[in-house]
Amino acid sequence: MTAALSVLQREHRALAAVLYCLEQVLGEIRLKRLAPDFALFESIVQYIQDFPDRFHHPKEDELLFPLLRKRAPEVNAILDELEDQHHEGIRLTNELKWKLAAWKENGESLFPAFDNAARAFIDFQRRHVGTEEREILPAAKRTFTEADWSRVNDGFASNEDPLFGRKPKAAFDALFSKIVSLAPEPHGLGARRAPAPKPPVGASEDRRRQLVNLHWI
Fold first, then answer.
1. Which of 62, 133, 159, 215 is the most exposed place for a label (fewest CB within 10 A)?
2. What is the pLDDT of residues 92-104, one digit of tens each?
3. Coil, helix or strand at residue 71
4. Are 162 and 168 in contact (CB under 8 A)?
5. 3-30 and 146-156 helices, crossing angle to 10°
């Protein structure tokens, strides 16, 4: 019944893990304990630019929210706010991308601008996801019919869909794994540097399980 909600919550956890990593690495740089790794920052910014807008928000805007407006009109005002935040998130992410490029090109003096933009983005996304987890997903679970769930779950499971299919998921799995491999310990999303998204042939069962589990925190 709630397979779609499990997918959304899993995606929330993956995004939260990336944002936590960003937050911790920025803190280490502020304390002069860590030199900036622009490959890591560029991978994180790519993830938070592409993942919500190309892979996560369409599931909500096209599948979940329209049905929820019919079944639970009492949350329409919250849905309006969340949809506005989807657009605001694009602006904040673009600002983050520009400030990262300026920092990389012009040096340490522009780190505070990127740092402030990143912290604002992290706070914004946490509020957004928190609202969905507290208000929207429970409302769907409470009010959707079996036919509603069948429609939503089928949409999420459509492997040929250009938004929800195998290729987008594989791309984001690979990007998540790249972030895991670049992130310094102990902020590496619980990982010891994993060079590839698939467990190597011949790896021990414990190691194979660890690498597989890295994709969804």
1. 159
2. 999 999 999 999 9
3. helix
4. yes
5. 50
